Each structure stands twice: as C-alpha cells, then as structure tokens.
Amino acid sequence: MGTQRSKRSIGPIVGLLVGVAAVSILAIWSGLEAVYETLRQAGWALLLLCLLEPPSQLIAALAWRNLFPPRRKPPVWPAFWASWIGHAINLLLPVATVGGEIVKARVLTFWSSSTVDAYSTMIVDKTVQSITVLLWAVIGIVILAAIVPDKEIVLWATAGAALLGLGIGGFLALQLLGPFSHFARFVARLVGPDRLRRLTGGAQAFDEAIRAIYRRPKDVAVACGYLMARHLWLVVDILLAAYLLGQPIGLWEAVLLRALVTGIVGLSFAIPSSLGFQEGGFIAVGALLGHPPEFMLALSLASRVREVVPAVPLLFYWQHLEGRALFRRRLAKAQVSSGSPEA
Questions:
Q1: What's the half-sphere exposure (Cβ side, CA atoms, 13 Å) at 183?
Q2: Is residue 21 part of a domain?
Q3: Which among 69, 90, 129, 257 could disulfide-bond with 100, CB atoms 3.0 to 4.6 Å apart, if both were Cys?
Q4: Is residue 343 assigned to a domain?
C-alpha cells in the first residue's frame, strides 16, 4: 500500500522537475542576461498585472456556479474564494491540475453547498474548462493559418487540437456512463455486503447529479461562454505585459499567443503550472511572429507574475480553512463523547 502511494506521488514530482529543467534550458538558451534586462526595464510595474487576476477568477467562479441546480446555487463570494484557492493549488503545487479542483469543491462544502452538488459540478466544470481551451486553441489555429503561410505548422497545431478533442470526448463519455456507480460496486465486493447499499447509493446519486447537469445544456453553454470571456480578458494580460516590457504587440498577435499557448498548456496538464511548456509555447509562437526568444520568455514570466503573486496568500488561507474545519470536527466529536452514556 505504501509503495503504491509513493509511486503515485513520484509522478507529479517528476513532472515538476522536468518542467523546471525545461525552464532553465529555455532561459539559458535565450540568454539569462537578456531576459533579466528585459524584465528589469519593467521593474515593479509588472505587479500591475496582478490587478487583472481577481476579475479573471471571478469569471471562472461564475462559470462554475452556473452549473449548480438553479435553487441550490452557492453565494457568489464563497464560490469565488473556493475557485481561486483551487486555482492556486493547481498553480503552485504538483497536483497535475486535478488536486486543486478537488480542494475547491471541498472548500465550498465548508460554507454552503452539499457534497454531491460541489463535487459533481466540479467535474463538469473541469470538462467545460477543457472544452473552452479547445475552442480557444481552434481560434488560434484559424488566425495562425491566416498569418503564417507554413501549412505544416498549421497541420501540427490542428493535430494537437484533435488530440485534445479526443481526450475531452473520452472524459465526457466516461461521465455519462456513470463510472462512480461501477466503481462503488467493485469496492463493495471488497468491503462486504453491509456497506453495499451506502456505497452504491451515494455513487448513484453522484452519477445522477452529473447527468442532471448535462440535461441542462443551456447552463453548460453559459458556463462555456463565461470561460471564453475569461480567455478574452486574459488577452489584456499579454498586451499590458508586452507594453510594460517596452515592446508593445498588436491585438491579433496577443490573441494568437494567448490562444495557442492556452492549447499547449491544456495538453501539458500533468506538468505543474505547465512549467517549460508555457515558456516554450511563447517562444515558438513568438518565432512565427518574428519576436526574439528573450522577449517572449520574459513575456511568459511576466504573465506568470499575474497568477503567482496573488496565489501565494491563498495557500495560507486554505490551510486556515482546513485547520478551522478540523477543529470543528474534533470539537463535535468531543461533545458527542462527553454526552455518551459511558461518559
């Protein structure tokens, strides 16, 4: 059992090391001094990019909230903080962009939502995120085909989008087949018949909650619309970062960069923060547009400032919430024990 856990924990760590190594290689190849000089020109003004993050996270939270049953939608601000905490965990910890999704659902249950609602909408929200990444990547490929005459590059980009689409289709089909009920039946055989009804009943409720969300296609479409708007908002991040670095770029270049890099990041979900892949994407797309690698690497790192700086305090806030929840559970257990006949 311990060996299996250690193997599961090694994968994300290896991914993190690969990402860090890739960033280091890209930085050295691009010229550390040139990258540093480009970033130094902007200085502390790069912190202005952090002002773009709260609206971005609010839009993401509204998309998730829209998937809840109409009469059981959580308040906006708990959904906002839970969603942002999940994003911070995915960004800063080696959890393959999945652990943060689980935590955001868990955090929301601390405040208002039922476990079934929080976790079922989280899974569908992850699907919606993937769908909008694919749509945004397709937009980037269309722009790329119009700007870059090299058909082979467009073909490779299209192949990547198709691969991402197949993965999304498989994930969606798996949800509709009710995997949790099947898994619960398997587990019930191992733990005995006494727990069969509780396990399968809870899993069936969970599967049905997911299917119920997909039976509201309008809500799913609105959630997709929110996240498409969020991607569009983050184009401002590229424009502002390039301006602060002293090399402004055009709107269509910024849209192309955001779209294609978003697709590359979507394919590298197992790498923490897509370290190396985002930077490599910026450099590769920038080369097609005629921008030097040191500027594109600096642009990628400046874009990370927007996400990383506000995310760090949220990890401490998450630990505060978990500690408070643990304290309440222990207090409730102590009260039950003190009120028992044995006491």
A1: 10
A2: no
A3: 90
A4: no
Judged against a pLDDT cut of 60, whether residue 194 lies above it is answered with no
- Cβ(113)–Cβ(74) under 8 Å? yes
52 close to 234: Cβ distance less than 8 angstroms: yes
Q: The tokens of 167 are what?
A: 């993965």
Query: What pTM did the predictor assign?
Result: 0.83
SS3 114: coil
State how far the Cα of 234 lies from the Cα of 284, in Å rounded to an integer. Answer: 19
Q: Which residues contact 172 (CB under 8 A, 6 or more apart)?
A: 127
- Residues 148-157: what's their mean pLDDT? 80
Contact 72, 213 (CB under 8 A): no
Q: Angle at the Cα of 84 (from 22 to 19), degrees rounded to 5?
A: 5
- For the chain, what is the domain count? 1
pLDDT score for 29: 63
Type of residue found at 59: I
251 domain-assigned: yes
In a domain, 169, yes or no: no
Dihedral class, residue 273 (left if φ above 0, else alpha if ψ from -120 to 50, else beta): left
Its domain, for residue 293, covers 29-149+222-323
Residue type, 115: T
